[in-house]
Amino acid sequence: MGLKFVMLPPQNELYRSWGQRLAKSLPDYSIVVAENEQQAMAEIVDADAAFGTVTLSLLQKATRLRWIQSPLAAPPAGYYYAELVEHQLVVTNFREIFNDHIGAHVMALVLAFSRGLHRYIPLQLQRKWQPAPDRVKNTVYLPEASLLIVGVGGIGAETARMAATFGLRVIGVDTRRKDIPEGMSALHPAEALDELLPEADFVVLTVPDTPVTKGYFNRERFRRMKPTAFFINIGRGKTTRLDDLVAALQAGEIAGAGLDVFEQEPLPADHPLWVMPGVILTPHVAAHGPYLDDRRFEILQDNCRHFAAGEPFRNVVDKKLWY
Questions:
Q1: 232 with 92, same domain?
Q2: pLDDT tens digits for 181-200?
Q3: What is 31-87 written as a DSSP string?
Q4: 116 lies in which domain range?
């Protein structure tokens, strides 16, 4: 008897096309595209695997479920609830597909800050020709600067590789990684973060949103940074307390910030960050770029094949940690 794989709602044309492609390429599978919750409840009962969000009510109906492919690299809070964490099934995700796009976004911000674009772009909008009075102090010479990556997964590793090509000294902290990726001079445990913050000219936050990382960067940590340093967050918005960031910027405790993610999205129109000097904001677009859907499907298809063959999955999640 073949394996049953259910693609859970909500559906769209992309997911429906994936279902058709999986059905053609995986003869050992019965692929079911559930169009609504009622169909999902009926089909999950004897499913071996599923794509999407398995709610508690669906999990309680399932009798054979052994693997879930998450539809995101880092699904929102609530995806990993206690019963799912305790269940023996395996969850995989779509991490690693954004590494090049997000790494380039980080470097765009690093280069912008190093060349003073955070000062000159607002002046351009005001049609003001106003060179900085000190040509040295208003630039960062990258071969003499340090970049600290907080969370050295795939995105952090690719950022390290890119940053090193500009001469930056790259260091990192991570809770699990032991091998030092290309371009990084040193990798430390997460406990070393507070000691390393005073060394960095750029601090790049890439960690996921988990119970441990909520509010990870707060006023205390901003105060540990150099007053000339720049903070960049392209991970998850809830890892940084924006009120504390605003206070740190206003007090001159850091020089600037580049943010792609926010505690509240969209960022409210009246939020002070929109008009603060030294701040560059992008609307959660760091991951944008070509080939992402192709990369997602490749992981999904590979994991279906690994599951059928009893081989190790790609991108297994530690459900207790949510990533």
A1: no
A2: 999 999 999 999 999 999 99
A3: EEE--SHHHHHHHGGG-SEEES---HHHHHH-SS--EEE-SSSSPPTTSS-HHHHHS
A4: 99-281
